[in-house]
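Table S2 (text version). Query chain:
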Amino acid sequence: MEHGLRYMVVDDNELDQLAILAQAAKYPHLKHTGTFSNTMDALSALNSVEPELVFLDIDMPGGTGIELLRAVRDKIPIAVFVTSHGEFALEGFELEAFDYILKPLTEKRFQQTMARVIEYRQMKQDAKAYAVQYETEAITIKEGHNQVRIPISDIIYLEAMDSYTKVVLQGKKYMTLTSLTNMLEQLPADKFGRIHRSYAVAKDKIEELKSGELICGGHDLPVGKTYKPIVSKWKL
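Corresponding structure-token output:
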């Protein structure tokens, strides 16, 4: 990241606040704009500090993190839930949360989120967020005045990034201005399958299914708990 990324922490537990701040301190380009223990104070501060990234808990005084995000979704470009309440994950993703981390926060999990945040932000800064058109055997991504036609058979996996979807090929990737759900509705259902809230794969590119993850085109991807029964029935 060439420019600082302003972030805010909203969590009523001081130890959890410190855990996030300690991990964030390892990224020089992250600029701390405030830590708040309730949604009311955070809501007041949002207008003045305008953070690009907000780490949110769920259960807090004065309202939940879900309620806060719903009220000010347009003011939080990148929302990451850090919570003990896994049961709200679906609602969080329906609000286009960027990620949903279950406590206790670990360095590895924070690194995974930040890698996605940095890539997402860089691709947006580079104006690599394009409209997509669908054909029977290919998708066409518009790049300014140019168009890139991608055979569907070349796609390895798709990754949700907020309201965008990253299309990953061998050695290449493109950001498209469409949600993962919308893209999957247009692609052949027999060729692609969702394995996680944030990931869908080309079934013919799957190489190995492990406990909690699979290898697809040389990439290790997580398999969400709710998707494991579905994935286990696929013929690999």
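Notes on Table S2: The two ends are 38 Å apart (CA to CA). The mean pLDDT is 89.
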